[in-house]
Design goal:
alpha+beta; NADH Oxidase; binds flavin mononucleotide; 22% strand; 7 helices; two-stranded parallel ribbon
């Protein structure tokens, strides 16, 4: 499925959606989201989202539950690449358990796309710039936000529903996502078919 929405229409349609039908989402839709978030669009590796000093510290992980053509599990995902299975099984309940407060849309999403980063590499790269030690992390958060909004506009354009979640226990979430320091989760997008179009 492709979209006929203009950018203006996708901007107007974007809303946080936390109620999903449970119907499987197409793998190609998820691959479009990955391409929107971190697609490589330039000969020198430039991407759909800007990156301070072109360091590109972000990495994407997919928790697949109900995805057409993909067994439930944890995947490493990159634009234009087939998802790489890291761990089989339905990890949505464990991810929901690691969220702060009750967030049933984590377990109810068809899939969850997580944006992670090597924060430490960027902090070291910008260590000499004030505010000392903080500039690098600030840049990574900004970059993750840009990538997330790109993906959310693609969600809207595809008629899917999604919500950005950043309220989670960092350590527990990193464990579910199979991340080891210095990689850490920054946010994730819960995705699925919305129960009602707004
Ligand atoms: C940094 C950030 C963190 C967020 N964390 C959560 C979250 O943990 N759980 C959640 O359900 N929504 C989360 N949201 C979504 C907001 O609740 C939502 O964007 C807001 O209510 C406005 O609604 P709208 O997105 O439909 O315009 C977050 C949004 C941002 C920007």
């Amino acid at each position: 499925m492709t979209s006929d929405l203009s950018l203006q229409e996708a901007l107007a349609a974007r809303r946080s959606n936390r109620d999903f039908t449970g119907r499987a989402v197409p793998l190609e839709s998820l691959q479009r989201l990955v391409g929107a978030a971190q697609g490589v669009t330039g000969a020198e590796g430039q991407r759909t989202a800007p990156s301070a000093h072109a360091l590109y510290p972000l990495g994407l992980r997919l928790v697949a539950g109900e995805v057409e053509g993909l067994e439930a599990g944890l995947y490493e995902v990159e634009a234009e690449q087939a998802p790489r299975l890291l761990k089989a099984g339905d990890l949505r309940p464990a991810l929901q358990e690691a969220a702060l407060e009750e967030q049933p849309w984590v377990g109810g999403a068809a899939a969850i796309l997580a944006i992670c980063a090597d924060m430490e590499a960027v902090r070291q790269h910008f260590a000499e710039q004030p505010p000392l030690g903080e500039r690098g992390s600030r840049y990574v958060y900004i970059e993750a936000g840009a990538a997330a909004q790109n993906a959310l506009l693609q969600v809207a354009a595809d008629g899917l529903g999604g919500v950005l979640v950043a309220g989670f226990d960092d350590q527990a979430t990193a464990e579910v996502l199979g991340l080891e320091a210095p990689f850490a989760p920054l946010l994730y997008l819960c995705l699925g078919w919305p129960t009602q179009a707004e």
